[in-house]
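haha ok so turns out i had the wrong file open the whole time. this is the CORRECT one, sorry everyone. sequence first:
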Amino acid sequence: MAAENPETLPESPEPPPLSERLFAATLRCDNCDAETPHRVLRWISGTTRRSGALSGTARCRRCGWVHPFSIVRPARVEVAVVISDGPQSVHRRLLLLSTARVEKGGRIPGVDEPLYVRRIEASSGHSVSSARPSEIATVWATHQTGAAVPVSVIEGARTWTDRLTLPTDSRLTVGEMLSVRGQRLEIVALRARGRTWRKPEDSFPAAEVSRVYTRRTEIPPAGRRPWSNGRVRPSSRTSSFSRSSRSRSGPGDKRTRRTPRA
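then structure:
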């Protein structure tokens, strides 16, 4: 039998570059009936890490069974993320697996950086508690492990604001007391789910509250100006009246007439 012309032989496919090869992986072994470590023995042309499809032949390190394998990586979706760090915010775009699910209060999946989700805006413009990356328009996240809640402190005609970090699993209730900067304040309203709640016992998780309205209930009650520490209260009622001689132009003390007029 005559030898074939070397020029007519098909060209052998070139293996992928070393930087894109996969030498070991955890694959499904039908012989072991489990996910086991494998040694990759051979590649199929055209499959690389960048393409997302990996195919070839591998050997199970547990039982030694050699079999073909094929791995198809799920697609990734680019999602806009606003990362808040105190008063500053950073806008980034992250690639998330299309099969992942982003949940409010949890970490952004597939990201090494610890980012906790505070708000999810869907493509429809509404806020949702969880969604797939393909359904998300913007995600608001923070590095803090608790819920950062803005607090408005009402003191008469004067109102000042602060930010309080609470555990994610904590709840806020209208009518209960809240400690802010060492002061005991009464919660008079909560802003959550797009509206303001004022009835006593209205309660929400801290992660769902966008603002807390509180009022100072200490004595003396809050007024228009900060309290003066130099005021001295009289020890008795008698000491509050002046004992000096009365001027003729003064009205004097009102006395009850005991005898009728002539």
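Residues 21-72 form one domain.
again sry for the mixup
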